[in-house]
Amino acid sequence: MREKIAEVQSAAETWSPAQTLAWAFETFGNRVAISSAFGAEGMVLIDLASRVRKDFRLFTIDTEFLFPETYALMDKIERRYGIAIEKVYSLLSPEEQERTQGAALWSRDPDRCCNLRKVEPLRRKLGELDAWITSIRRDQTTARSGAQRIEWDEKFGLVKINPIVDWTSKEVWRYIQQHGVPYNSLHDQSYPSIGCTHCTGPVRAGEGPRAGRWPGVAKTGCGLHAITPAQALPPTEA
Ligand code: SF4
To answer: How far apart are alpha carbons 17 and 106 in whole angstroms?
Structure first.
């Protein structure tokens, strides 16, 4: 599979999101799924996918610390697109986490909390897939700037497909408005990037879109999309 990705990778850079999604569904069938936390980009991706294939797979990592607005949006998505979101949970309930790790782990050791509630569940879910589709964009973070439209995900050992990797935030919002795509109502309350309640706040004027994530902590991501330029081209199997 790594060699197959190397063959299509450079051509794929010119593909539209619809072409990319069609290739993904055709190549991987039921072994590919969209991963989403239902941010603005994620909503665009879900809408684009629904125009390519009606019964696409969609999963989310439910940390059980999400905003009520996010859960409401999930219900709306299931009704609008006629799909059932596959929800993936931590092996530890919030109560078990508190009992075994102590109270408010997110404030003392957010990396450990993210590992327990996001990274391990994602790794488990990806273990049943050959490819995953994400809505990451190159201009979101420095770590994402080297992302390719199709790449080998070295960290999780499967194909990673990023159909809107070259879109700007402006293009995302233009699509949402043009197509009446639902979105998280917190976006209208100065929350450009939305994660868990414990680690997400509003941004102030002039701050970057992810300034509200883990405010006051030197942490910019949860470890789900660790991309380095070295990952852009998959190593061939020696
Ligand atoms: S974002 Fe915060 S609460 Fe959510 S899993 Fe990570 S550290 Fe825990």
So the answer is: 35
- What one-character DSSP code corresponds to residue 64? S
pLDDT tens digits for 131-156?
A: 999 999 999 888 899 999 999 999 99
Please, which residues have CB within 8 angstroms of residue 147's CB and are 6 or more apart in sequence? 136, 138, 162, 165, 225, 227, 232
Provide the pLDDT confidence category of residue 220 given band limits of 50, 70 and 90: low
| Secondary structure (3-state) at 151 | strand
Mean per-residue pLDDT, 92-111: 97
Mean pLDDT of the chain: 91
Q: Give residue 88 CA to ligand 1 midpoint distance, Å.
A: 15
Residue matched to tokens 């910019």: 220
Residue nearest to atom 4 of ligand 1 (CA): 196
Radius of gyration of the chain (CA): 17
Lowest mean pLDDT among 39-43, 157-161, 206-210: 206-210
Is the shortest distance between the CB of 114 and ligand 1 below 6 Å?
A: yes
Ligand 1, atom 6, lies closest to the CA of 114
- How many CB atoms are located within 10 Å of the residue 141 CB? 17
Specify the pLDDT at position 209: 77
C-alpha 79 to ligand 1 mean position (Å): 28
Q: How far is CA 127 from the centre of its chain?
A: 16
**Contact by Cβ (8 Å): 52, 163:** no
Cβ neighbours around 152 below 10 Å, total: 25
